[in-house]
Amino acid sequence: MAIYVVMEPPGRTEAADATIFVRDGFSWLAFLVAPLWLAWHRLWIEAALAFVAMGLISVLGQWLGLDWAGSALSLLVSLYIGLEGQGLRLAALRRRGWHEWGVIEADNPDEADIRQTLDAEALADEPAPLPRIVPEASLARPAQIGLTLGLSHTPGKA
Fold first, then answer.
1. Element (DSSP H or E) covering residue 12
2. Which of 29-43, 52-66, 93-107, 111-125 has the lowest mean pLDDT?
3. What's 45's DSSP letter?
4. Are the C-beta atoms of residues 102 and 59 closer than 8 Å to each other?
5. 75-109: pLDDT as tens digits
6. Would the pLDDT of 157 be above 80?
7. How far apart are CA 106 and CA 121, in angstroms?
8. How far apart are CA 92 and CA 102, in angstroms?
9. Phi, psi angles (nearest 5°) of residue 110
10. Residue 78 and residue 26: Cα distance in Å, rounded?
11. Edge to edge, what strands does the sheet with 99-106 contain?
């Protein structure tokens, strides 16, 4: 089973399509085509940085005569995007004002949607918590002055 982070838009609209389910874990598509995957998810700055980093690493590797090192380092950038791409996506949603509803464990996004809907209905049906009863301070016992056990010192006593 996969873990999905449920993100709700700012303003908490009740539209069914407003909720986004972001799968937590490695993304093969992000690994294979990192800058395009980032651009597809509207992570423009991250996509530009990944594109520039991969290009500079490849050019630097060719300029130094280490073609294999440039390719390996570009592969590391792709691996990073594959591992952390979903986290970058969640961070971008939080910057845009989205908030996290919770985490759902499901096999696919459709099942995650069903589970989230059922959990939201169950939370809505729960009764409100009882108010906390706090005793009134004027009814409290006065502080006791006298013999104490331990290493504490009572002023006025020898």
1. none
2. 111-125
3. H
4. no
5. 999 999 999 999 999 999 999 999 898 899 999 88
6. no
7. 18
8. 17
9. -65, -45
10. 11
11. 20-24, 2-8, 99-106
Tell me the residue type at 35: P
Angle at 78 between CA 89 and CA 42, to 5 degrees: 30
Amino acid (1-letter code) at residue 106: A
Specify burial of residue 116 (Cβ count, 10 A radius: 0-12, 13-18, 19+).
buried
Q: Phi, psi at residue 20, to the nearest 5°?
A: -115, 135
For the chain, give me the number of helices (H) and strands (E)? 5, 3
Task: List strand residue ranges (DSSP E) for the chain, in order.
Answer: 2-8, 20-24, 99-106
3-state secondary structure of 10: coil
Per-residue pLDDT band at 13 (split at 50, 70, 90): low
Identify the band that residue 38 occupies on the pLDDT scale cut at 50, 70 and 90: very high
Residue 113 near residue 20 (C-beta atoms within 8 A)? no
